[in-house]
Structures are given as structure tokens and as C-alpha cells.
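New to this. Help decode the following:
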Amino acid sequence: MTREDFQWHWRELHGPLVASHAATLGLLRYIQSHTIPHDAENSRMSGARGPMEPPYDGVEDVWYAGRAEMIAGQRSAEGRRATQAIVEDERAFVDLPRSPLWLSHELPQIDPPEDLIATEAGPLIKTCFAIRQRPELSVDQAQTYWRTEHAGLLGRIGSAGHIKRYVQVHRRDDEMEARLRAMRGTGVEPYIGLAELWLERDGAGTPEIERGWQLALDDERNFIDFARSAMWYCTEHVVVDNR
């Protein structure tokens, strides 16, 4: 499939299918982040980090009120039928073995209202950075550094620059992940998390902001294995919001 055909099926067919089962499955929110088709821009953004994994075609975020609500939504006969229908449709357009998934908690760092959305026609663009840790670090060590040390650098850029929102999405170890991976035949190992930044599309960079970005990049080398990580730009489509 072309990326355009993939994203059309995802947005126009799969999104409404998931929305139709949202109440049964207890979905709180469901957002599709579609990678923009400007590969040159995505390559330029990751170029300073050396060879990286290629960008994904998108990210699907599903929120539940809690773990118990997630389990409850899939235990009923109706919930199992809904899940089966969703996974069957995924097989029609998603390369499931090469599409990682994981359970996570969000740790907002620069956090205006969550209705700040990077739409196709809006003033914002979203950056996704799927992270794996350096080989000498454990997942916990890398996540701790990311949360306690690196976040402050991005926070300072945000206060002076064009970062409008910044969220660290940390993978959590959960037995439910293995079941979800088996259901889809997932073969790719999960990342330790996803950094999400909402930027002004036309934000002007001052020398101070550029120095801040360089400091942040230098600090990334302390905990990120760039060769096993990926980053890209995308826009968002809000499909379900039951908050």
C-alpha cells in the first residue's frame, strides 16, 4: 500500500469502526497521528542524530480511565467481538508484525490544555520521537534520566521558544502487553517510550533557542540509542473523546 492509501483506510474506515465500539470497550480517547508526507523534512530533523530507524506511518493512541477499565472492556462477549472486529480490520491495512505496541503512562512536562491539537490546517505540528535506551542502561535508568534530567532542558526551550506542549509517554511493564502482541502477531520489540512535542509550524528560532536545542540534542546522547530510535512529524485526527 502507499502511505496515502494506508492513512485513508485508517482515517476513513478504521477510525469510525473503533468509534462505533468505544462505549463497549470503555475507550476514553482515541487519536490518530498521521505522519506527514514530507520525508525530506523528517530526514532533516533526524539528520543531526546520525543513522536512525525510518519514520513510522503514524501512531495510534488509545486512552482508558485505568487498567481495570481496559480489562473490563475486553472481558465481555460483546467486548471480545468488538476487539476481534478491530483486529481483523487492522490486518487489512497495517503491517502488524512490524508495528510495535506497548502500554504506557503519560508524564506531561509542558502541559497546556489537552485540546491543543496539531490539525492539518492548524498552526501546530506534532513531533514523535520513539526512544530506545543506550545498551549499557536499563529501561528504568533511561526513563529516570529522561524524566528527571532531560525534561528540564526541554522545559527551558519551551518557555522561550515554540514548544507549546511536551509529553513523555513512558512504557510500563504489564502482562497485558504480551496478550495484545500475541493477538496481532507483533514482532518488533517495544520502545521505552514516546516523546511528543507540539511545535509552532513557523516558529522563529533565535540564537538562544538554537543553543537550547543543541544542548538538548547533546543530552539525548546520554540515554538514547539513536540507531534504534525513530522520529518524525505528524498531524492529529481526534476520533473519540469521552472525557
Remarks:
- The longest strand covers residues 230-241.
